[in-house]
From TrEMBL:
Species per Swiss-Prot/TrEMBL record: Pseudazoarcus pumilus
Protein name: Protein-L-isoaspartate O-methyltransferase
Alphabetically ordered keywords of this record: Cytoplasm, Methyltransferase, S-adenosyl-L-methionine, Transferase
InterPro entries tied to this protein: PCMT, SAM-dependent_MTases_sf
A family per Pfam: PCMT
Entry's family note: Belongs to the methyltransferase superfamily. L-isoaspartyl/D-aspartyl protein methyltransferase family.
Coiled coil (UniProt feature): none
Domain of life assignment: Bacteria
Location of the protein in the cell: Cytoplasm
Major subcellular site: cytoplasm
GO cellular component, as recorded: cytoplasm
Molecular function via GO: protein-L-isoaspartate (D-aspartate) O-methyltransferase activity
Length: 230
């Protein structure tokens, strides 16, 4: 990679981050403040989005828009990713479960914030491609598993944080059960056209509470995964 290419991508990334910071101001009501956590922005600065999109999408990698990645899947709008990651409040000692790896960008971001990230993908080809991209870019504290995201990953539970990047109609009970006391889960859920991005918190006694963040539009959780929801 030439220096000029790196410089161009770095400039595009900084422009994206400036737009994201502006977006935080516009989302101040949902955030309770007018800026995203500096650690989240630093992670987005350090993880090149263009490295986690198909080659033909790289010219658009730093635009505030979702991008197709194949198999009727997409990589989410960076502003929404920043919001979800900020609300998740990941700490350096946390173990995080992500549902819906895609090509690995979200998992890479989370790996900059957490001790360990487990990420699940149901599409074989995407999982293989994501694993190669994560390894190529040096994200060693991410373990990628092929499987049904609605079932979660009970053998590694409980999780301090859970991030779901595809939308079930209802929050899968298995994911609720695998959220640790004091944990937080960010998940979009609902019928197509009626989805809501939500924050699930579990208190020290294990009681779960759900709060709406904002209306959202995400790709639906695959039918094979939806069978795990109630």
């Amino acid at each position: 990679m030439t220096e000029s290419f790196r410089d161009t991508r770095s400039t595009e990334n900084e422009s994206m981050l400036a737009e994201i910071s502006l977006g935080a101001c516009l989302m101040s009501e949902q955030l309770g403040r007018d800026t995203f956590d500096a650690r989240v922005l630093d992670a987005m600065r350090a993880v090149p989005r263009h490295a986690f999109v198909p080659l033909e999408m790289q010219p658009h990698a730093y635009h505030l828009r979702p991008l197709p990645i194949g198999f009727d899947k997409s990589i989410a709008n960076p502003l929404i990713v920043a919001l979800m990651t900020d609300v998740l409040r990941v700490e350096p000692h946390h173990t995080v479960l992500e549902i819906g790896t895609g090509l690995g960008w979200n998992a890479a971001l989370l790996s900059r914030l957490a001790r360990q990230v487990y990420t699940m993908e149901i599409v074989d080809e995407l999982a293989a491609e994501a694993l190669e991209r994560l390894h190529r870019n040096g994200f060693g504290n991410v373990e990628l598993l092929l499987g049904n995201g609605a079932e979660g990953l009970p053998r590694h539970a409980p999780f301090d944080r859970i991030l779901v990047t595809c939308a079930p109609q209802l929050i899968p009970p298995a994911l609720l059960a695998q959220l640790a006391p004091g944990g937080r889960m960010v998940v979009p859920a609902g019928l197509p056209g009626e989805q809501m991005l939500m924050l699930v918190t579990r208190d020290a006694d294990g009681h779960a509470r759900v709060a709406d963040i904002l209306p959202a539009t995400f790709g639906e959780m695959d039918r094979a995964e939806l069978s795990g929801s109630m």
